[in-house]
């Protein structure tokens, strides 16, 4: 069968143009051809083709050339070209796992020539070994046949070149001879690589951790040995016995981008042993037991049977809101409002035309008072009125000192943009008390309704964590919302932010800018804050630092600028779960008055967590600019683990009791470096909820 394949290959070669005479010539040939085909293909006019059949034929021809170019790049060990082709085409377009006429795949050539970088690139792209190699014997026989047939072809061509007189045919024979000589050397190198290879060593750093009450996760690294062949897959095995008899299950991992595996469907409270082994073309290597040798699926909540803190809270709040609405819906003062629509039915694009209507109630200048402005942005552009002004409406022209309680109330209202009409009705009912606070809040709701009506958009976005003020007594409450690129608007004026900043004619002096001028000057910072506030942490367990400072009317919390919706933090590990055993150890540590010196212990999950915490605490102290010797007075919050969505969890590091919250006038001896800010606690809570 192999001899017949080689004969077919010889006939194909005879019909093909002469092959490359050397590796360098071959490299130039396939690069030039690839470039030529790429340009010609992309320059075709679709309308000029006769039909779908011709286009499909052209496409297949083009992809065939790409497949041939990949084989040649692997054979010539051209890593840059291999990476370029893998990036430019999908595995399907390259026929990455379709054997060539010799029964080989690109990955076979890479691993048998022991080219680890190319082999890893192919493996990450989904490359596989040839299915023809079902055993070591079949691979050895296949390589021996390729070498023998190539040697035979070289001898035949050599005899023809020696015996024939110099002519055109002889020149072609010489080119074929050089190409076959090069291929003969390639096959010999592949055969030698296979014969000298040995099974891989065991994987390194095999670490086992508890992922949940019914799963464990194993992570590992490649074998350290550089003399064995490239590893193409791994096997994870698990059992309830340290001898792995019986074996409960196994999984083969052939996607090597991330070397980890989660074993699911396990029984809580049962110990599971895990081992990992590596595979190359010579077979499976020895297994490596995990560290620790076993893990028991569990969760910290099992320690005292504690239920999740937020279980049922959202449903309870929805039920409570429904009850409140039911109480108010039959009020007499609501009768005139029943005919009003609960939601605006007109399109956004139609309503946005108010931006350009001369009769709109957007303000151009500020007079002493309280105002609301909505910033809608897309990329580097911002939405403006027909007069190139940021949309601003008045809340109260007699209000020159915004109380923090009113501002925080406004931020809570921002969670209910769709309920503004109903909230207005509720506040109207209570106005008989003539409360100044209620009057102000009712005006806030009116301003929100006015902004929503003029823009035709219910959702005004997120409230910036502090209002913009000036010395003239103006106060701006700012909302921010990013407009997605797939949203379509008609007759909307988008202006580049830089153009708006340069074209605005300021009526104030640089020493005393108005609130609008201050807003424009700092608008990039506010947009950056808004974008960072929506970022999420990658899954894992984190160590957070809780630091508060109090003022007369508020408490503020220290957060990093890059993630203002999260406490200052460092990552402990990628596994967010705290097991029952780890939590028991943390409870014991919290109850000990004097610190226990670290001593070498047997490898277990508690000791591993202790080492991880030591590293994380040092990193966190450096981050917030606190001397490491002060950390001895800090403590871990041992009441609970803070869970966020099941994929992110936090352990809290607390300063000494007297230093958790800095009082007004109290000096903080350790000031964090740049890159931090303090948010009002209620604003931080709203941001975390978002």
TrEMBL record:
Pfam families: fn3. GO terms for cellular component: spindle. InterPro entries: ANKFN1 (IPR039269), Ankyrin_rpt-contain_sf (IPR036770), FN3_dom (IPR003961), FN3_sf (IPR036116), Ig-like_fold (IPR013783). SMART domains: FN3. One of its GO terms (biological process) is establishment of mitotic spindle orientation. Residues 1-26 are annotated as: Disordered. Coiled coil: none annotated. Residues 202-299 form the Fibronectin type-III domain. This is Ankyrin repeat and fibronectin type-III domain-containing protein 1. It comes from Eudyptes sclateri (Erect-crested penguin). The lineage of its organism: Eukaryota, Metazoa, Chordata, Craniata, Vertebrata. The gene is ANKFN1_1.
